[in-house]
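Human: For the file, kindly provide a plain-text protein record giving the amino acid sequence and the backbone structure tokens, at your earliest convenience.
Assistant:
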Amino acid sequence: MLKRLEIENYGSIRHAEVKPTPLHAFVGPNDAGKSTVFKAIEALSRFVALHPQAGLPDQPPLIPARARETLTLTAEFAGSIGFNIGFAPRAQTLESYIRETMQGEWLGYRHIMPDLKWASDEPAELVPFAARIREKLDCTRIELSDAALRSDSPSIGAREPVMFDGEGHGLAAVYDSLMARADGSFEELGARMRGHFPWLGGFELVTLTPVTKNLVARTLDGQRIPAKQLGSGVMRMLAWEALGFLDRPHLLLVEEPEAGLSPALIPATMERLRALTTDPRRATQVLIATRSPLVVNELGPDEITVVRRNPSEGSMFTPLTAQPEYVARSQTLPRGLRWLDLV
């Protein structure tokens, strides 16, 4: 689990230190810097990857276009290991370090910009730590798109992870793989979806080409509704509910989980995301960027960081627990209004 993240001179952030819980939300207005935290984590993940790839069109740049004199990102994890990168834009050099905190020292190796080639092999003593950090920084940023969720899906190969992408492409293939497992997960998901949408009778997979499938919903009166005609809420709940059965990374970065959902479905979505953090099969840390009082109403004060931004100081991150007077006052409000002023 990521237990501390320090960001200096990255995008709109001059300096920030956050200590996320297993389920944690960054709450603030548009353009406050919530998503910048996610971009920094993604940059860390790509820096520590065994074979970094630069310039791919579907990936954000590792270094913001207007990077200042120096840029540093530091991540520390449960289990006494940490990872740090430092970048000097003018010199076009990058230093990256791994620390085993029991030893209390940083052991370093260097990348060369802009091609991100290794300047030297990893020292042998770093190999086990580097492998653990790569696993812990394996992350997916989820910002679901209705078009992606409804799109036709190529089948998932036998050796490929069963997971949709950050926008929701591949959702039908995920359900196809779960049905093929024949372990009851497909049936359990159908039952959970019927609990959210009482008109549902179930789901089917329809084969469009030899390697492409999509979802079809059945109603209680026998109608068959293809995915491209299903509502946004149905498709999004199919994605949120499926996460508990998939080959998830250790870290999920979730943008506005409330999007496209009725207020009644938000508590169920948050319950599902919280369950991922304690899954004995594969515990996943979930970080959320949101503006919704209905989302933060499902969280405790220690699970919320308030994000604000001003021209002189950039993005500022404040744990809600650092404002005890607000926490105390919030306890006297009705549940539905508890976090409205905060958001």
In short: Confidence is low (pLDDT under 50) at residues 52-57, 113-119.
